[in-house]
Amino acid sequence: MATERKNNRGRIQIMGDVLGLATAGIKKTHIMYRANLSYEQVHAYIAELIERGMLEQATSDDGTVYRATEKGRAFLHYYGRLVELLDMPVPTGLEVQYISR
């Protein structure tokens, strides 16, 4: 009996998923559920993306939201191009908005 093994996402793909979800601003818990990450993982990725200048934290009436910065949107653009070039499947189930050319 052959079983199909699903590949785990890599670090770059997860960063792309988080940034794609954060293009319009999103709460941490929504990132966690939509990107299928644990609390520890989402906290670590958000911290890294903020440190790298790709994600910014803002306070709204609803609480803290995260938005992709210009640098984060540039990452999405190049990541989307790489996905196209390698003919990789675009992540499904996420509202990822890869910026086109």
Question: How many domains comprise the coordinates?
Answer: 1
Order of helices and strands: HHHEEH
Helical segment tally? 4
Task: Quote the average pLDDT.
Answer: 86
Tell me the helix content: 40-55%
What spatial form do the alpha-carbon principal axes imply?
globular
Beta-strand percent range: 5-15%
CATH architecture field: Orthogonal Bundle
Kindly report the oligomeric state of this protein: single chain
CATH topology: Arc Repressor Mutant, subunit A
Distance between the termini: 43 Å
Q: Which ranges are low-confidence, i.e. pLDDT below 50, for 5 or more consecutive residues?
A: none
By DSSP, the count of extended strands is 2
Biggest sheet: strand arrangement: 1-2
Name the CATH class. Answer: Mainly Alpha
The structure class reads: alpha+beta
Indicate the radius of gyration in whole angstroms: 14 Å
- Biggest beta sheet attributes: 2 strands, antiparallel
- Write the CATH homologous superfamily: Winged helix-like DNA-binding domain superfamily/Winged helix DNA-binding domain
What's the arrangement of secondary structure elements?
Elements lengths: L10 H11 L6 H7 L4 H13 L3 E6 L2 E6 L1 H16 L16
In short:
47% of the residues lie in helices and 12% in strands. It has 101 residues and is an alpha+beta fold. It has a two-stranded antiparallel ribbon with strand order 1-2.
Structural summary, described in words:
The chain is α+β, with helices and mostly antiparallel strands and 101 residues long. 47% of the residues lie in helices and 12% in strands. It is built from four helices and two strands. It has a two-stranded antiparallel ribbon with strand order 1-2. A hairpin with a 2-residue loop joins strand 1 and strand 2. Helix 1 crosses helix 4 and helix 2 packs across helix 3. The chain starts with 10 loop residues before the first helix and ends in a 16-residue tail after the last helix.
